[in-house]
Design goal:
Blueprint lengths: L7 E4 L2 E4 L4 E5 H8 L5 E10 L25 E10 L1 H5 L7 H11 L8 E6 H8 L3 H13 L3 E5 L6 E6 L16 E5 H8 L4 H15 L4 H5 L2 E2 H5 L8 H8 L2 H6 E5 L3 E6 L8 H21 L12 H14 L1 H16 L8 H24 L1
Antiparallel strand pairs: 1-2, 3-9, 4-5, 6-8, 7-8, 10-12, 11-12
Length: about 375
């Protein structure tokens, strides 16, 4: 593993290896882990085109290409009723404890490969980072495995080390058309703030709210005041207005969100340092750092004529591919370009397009192999 893929985190206890700058965590598995809401109905304000008010019925150009840019278009606002069934959308799994959720998210920062395989997880290191004992980490790994979130195997002759496979990692990067539910791109600073939530319900509220701010369709609603019953949908039945106010009043929670409440509603606005909208830029930095280290590794034993290099524009293009196909997949694609093009003196017209083609093909091949194993 190259240096660019991992970073050192220092706390008052000393120094130990941390995690990548960002990690993609599947929305479906994350929502199931914290707790799916019961079925409910919500309303969203939408703009509806009004052909009568726009004068379409008397217009000579009605139905022509001119309609797209017509200056007389009139829209009116309507409330659209939306039926929400999270169990059908995301799939129902066993809910996890606070420690198991944090261990699960922690695993995503350990540079899984393009298939979701993590070669080595140090239980002692994870325990130090999560401020718990090694037994808690081991119990969490077992709970995750028994619930189908991961597959885990203890490494022989290496005490306190395990290899882990993230069961749904490939699905994170599927498009909606392919049945994908997307992923939440978490920064390491956000994860540190989540790890600071001392109760399972404050963690549930924090993750739920971050997911809402990460979703373009829900972001506007997330910033508006919400009723306590609306927020309570994502919490166990015993949680009342009093519980919600207590959880959102914790210092660790208010580190992430600016919270304002009254008798009937509560408003949460995410602070800029934790806004998921800025996470993609950190992922690009993750990718660019890893690519630079890989290029140094590949060029170490290459002749001058067969050395690999990228311009700033190409690096930007390559890091953008990682947003869709993951950093490990991009690194694998670069190795293929080196082996099949650079080392064989084949001309490359557009290296970004070539890497994207390999990354896409690798993703499709991995899906096919996984489906064969599943069958």
């Amino acid at each position: 593993m190259s240096k660019g893929e991992r970073y050192i985190y220092t706390d008052n206890k000393g120094e130990f290896i941390l995690l990548t700058l960002t990690a993609p965590v599947g929305q479906a598995v994350l929502r199931s882990a914290i707790r799916l809401s019961d079925n409910f109905i919500k309303f969203r304000e939408v703009a509806v085109f009004d052909p009568g008010a726009s004068g379409c019925y008397d217009c000579l150009h009605a139905g022509s290409d001119l309609c797209a840019n017509c200056p007389n278009k009139v829209y009116h606002k309507e409330m659209k009723k939306i039926y929400v069934n999270e169990k059908a959308r995301y799939g129902e799994r066993m809910m996890l404890s606070r420690n198991a959720i944090l261990v699960f998210v922690y695993l995503h920062f350990l540079s899984p490969d393009e298939n979701g395989f993590i070669r080595m997880v140090n239980v002692q290191e994870a325990a130090e980072f999560l401020h718990c004992c090694p037994r808690t980490v081991r119990n969490s790994l077992n709970a995750l495995a028994s619930s189908g979130y991961i597959a885990v195997r203890k490494l022989e002759n290496i005490p306190c080390h395990y290899s882990v496979f993230l069961s749904d990692f490939r699905d994170y990067f599927r498009t909606a058309k392919e049945g994908g539910r997307g992923y939440l791109l978490l920064t390491r600073e956000t994860f540190l703030a989540l790890a600071g939530q001392s109760t399972i319900n404050s963690l549930r509220l924090a993750v739920r709210s971050i997911l809402s701010f990460a979703d373009g369709r829900e972001r506007a609603d997330a910033q508006n005041p919400r009723s306590y019953p609306e927020i309570a949908r994502a919490l166990p039945g015993y949680c009342t207005r009093k519980h919600i106010l207590a959880e959102t009043d914790r210092d660790a929670f208010r580190k992430i969100f600016d919270v304002q409440s009254d008798r009937y509603t509560i408003r949460m606005r995410i602070r800029a340092d934790f806004d998921p909208a800025g996470a993609s830029e950190l992922l690009r930095k993750d990718c660019e750092s890893a690519v630079l280290d890989l290029v140094k590794e590949l060029n170490k034993n290459a002749s001058r004529a067969h050395r690999l290099s990228f311009t700033k524009a190409e690096m930007r293009d390559i890091s953008g591919i990682a947003l869709r196909y993951s950093v490990p997949n991009v690194l694998h694609a670069i190795r293929q370009v080196m082996r099949e093009y650079i080392e064989t003196d084949r001309a490359v017209k557009n290296v970004g397009a070539l890497i994207r083609t390999y990354a896409k093909a690798n993703a499709a091949f991995s899906d096919e192999v996984n489906s064969l194993h599943a069958g």
